[in-house]
Protein: L-lactate dehydrogenase (Cytochrome)
Amino acid sequence: MVRRQLPRWSELRPLLRVDRPEFDPTRRRLSRAHTIGDLRSLARRRTPRAVFDYTDGAAENETSLQRARQAFRNVEFQPHVLRNVSDVDTSHDILGRRAALPFSFAPTGFTRMMHHEGEQAVVRIAQQAGIPYALSTMGTTSIEDTAAAGPDARKWFQLYVWRDRSAGKDLVQRARESGYEALILTVDTPVAGARLRDVRNGLTIPPSLTLRTIADAATHPAWWFNLLTTEPLTFASFKRWEGTVAELIDEMFDPTLSFADVEWLRGLWDGPLIIKGIQNAEDARRVVDLGADAVILSNHGGRQLDRAPTMLELLPRVRDGIGDRAQIMLDTGILNGADIVAALARGADSCLVGRAYLYGLMAGGQRGVQRAVEILRTEIVRTLQLLGVSSVEELDSSHATLRP
Structure:
């Protein structure tokens, strides 16, 4: 028989805790987010379906994106024990300069559509976190205004080559004059991918007021209020567009883009040149031969060619092909700090995250982006400690393998 007794007050008192009420709804909301997945759930509730799906979705059956995430799930870490991991160094060399964390903020289009604070919020957090931020040609804040918002941030400009080459040349000049450190040429978008969520949602840029969106406004009043009462959506590189994303890409982007354009751009830009959208080892070797300082292994977040190569699996072949002649960056499918650690161990020099910080932006504006960085930083540090590694620089292939 178990003998029972009523607890004494002296025994209960240490167990009682009253949480201090949090009256700031954004802080209260973000305090409940412990993973990027939590931020994604908050973002889904905070934004209209078409806007969330634009960020969250991929092309056709979304197989490329699913495979990228599955590859990270297939990583098996190989920890080393009995190491002193009381102090972990997360800093890393990115394009010859030290970054506080081994990742950068990827270029994303239409960022002010996700949240009215947009690119300016993101570049401020990049500056605060000590990591690079890449502004997209399709960004919704100008090159100059983004630079002013993060004067001490490491800023990169991502270029799509237009049919009008003089327009691209002008963008490069503006980026140089505004103090951007590096130029990213995206090469995987000769035409628009079939992003079926956008098609089914009838997404236009800017979002149109239709019976569907008006009904949606009733459940997302704050988002619509902010959209309609702040500056109209304009772009980093042009003033306005009315239509779908696919129509914009097919109208303005140049499908004749070739290796000759890499040479042209190398002659135009004397800073670090990064080529984004590399999906095989041969193309990586060729652009490095033409003067690229870094390549980004990327299938555009699964948003262009569905069933494209999986970057984490491709990574060792590209490393073997180019050696140390250029840095290798990797994106697509990264939703956890452990994913970043895995990519570094597999041979990447750094990673880029896009959706991860956009979920934070949609969930809570600038503070949401900050929360995304805090989550990734915490996960990176914890993963390194559990691997028995005290510095990002120590990672190598002995720390991570891919299960078949």
Summary: The chain has one domain: 26-402.
